[in-house]
Amino acid sequence: MRMTRRSVMTAGAVGVAGMATTTGAGAAPVDGLPLEPGAIAKDLERYLSFGSKRSGGAGDEACGAWLEARLKAAGLTPQRHAIETPFIENETCRLTLASGAVVPLLAQAPWRLTPAAGLEGRLFSPAEGGPAVPGGIAVAALSHRRWSSSSHAEVVAAMSAAQAAGASALILITNGPSGEALALNAPPVLPSEGQPSLAILAPHDAGPVLEALQQGQTARFLLTGETGLRPAWNLIGRLDRGRGRWLVLSTPRSGWFTCGGERGPGVAVWLALVAWAAREMTDHDLAVIATSGHEFENHGGHQALAQVMPSPDRTALWFHLGANVAARDWHEAGGELGPLPSADPQRFLVASQALLPAAKAAFAGQPGLEQPYPDSRGAAGELGEILKAGYPSAAGIFGGHRLHHAAIDDERALHPPLVEEAAIGAARFVRAALA
Fold first, then answer.
1. Do 47 and 267 meet the contact criterion of CB atoms below 8 Å apart?
2. CATH classification number, 20-85+230-434, choose in 2.40.128.270, 3.40.630.10, 3.40.50.300, 3.40.50.1820
3. Per residue in 21-45, pLDDT tens?
């Protein structure tokens, strides 16, 4: 089935439940990791059912409680590690052009609200050293990539130029494979004094705005809602056997939207590994964590590393399951996206130097993962935080699939056999790394 980038938002393209009977890895244990037929698909469907996973929101809370029950069932002692994250609720974000056309926008953190009537200003393109446009509305079309973070140099430059020009708002067009508005991870802070309001414009909605921009028209920007800080929590589980050496398994659970392909495979593989390690890896103590606060530049993971996780000198292995562990790939042709039964290869496997042979053998034949990189090359997301903390034996997966950070990252991004394959490779790697 093929879908245009516009219609992918509403088309019921690929369902997880419908794939459950096609799984082929589950009948027999592989390296001690038995996968019951349909178990991965069931976990993926349950993760999807919680909807939006914004930190501290209803979906994140419900997902955390589900995972907590699974840890108890596996014999681990769970703990909720409290953190605090920004939030926005009941938001309205839009741009009204001089023609009267209303263009929907995605509110971008940190959220600076406008008055109820909005802010009126001239549309302009921000540029370093450009003229002042007090109260103007800056519009920046970002280059084509799989956008993920507001810390990217191109975004930082646009924000700095808009603020220097005196803009009241900055609208970023996140050009990417899906044509959708892509939420950007942001620092865990409230907006600073004088910072413009931020919003994201989907490329497929950008035409009228770019035309008005070229004509120097005025427009009205609106961002209303409730914002502030709210409690969230990391889920930690421990099985202390008194061995003195810890196996740590981690994955984020939170994100901007449903996070089907971004988070779902990592959570499903994590659950499979936790149950397997609790049962089979008895020569090591077991510590596991499912973090909240991911979309605020790994805030939950950063806090956990500083406060509650085993120290590097007591950790035999830390294995992390980040974004795009096993999302489906898509053909891009003529402005259309066509789903494939293969994995998106834009996923990276990074491991400590001594673990590279084990990593390469464990994930042989899995696109993207079959070529592991040494930790000296660095990593993104929570894995980058783990490596910076000095864990000498660490590895993990991270990346960004074609629907990464889009509201349409749901069941359409998933194909359970790909997740099963990743789970089997992960178990093979952990066993070899600890041998």
1. yes
2. 3.40.630.10
3. 344 444 344 566 778 889 999 999 9
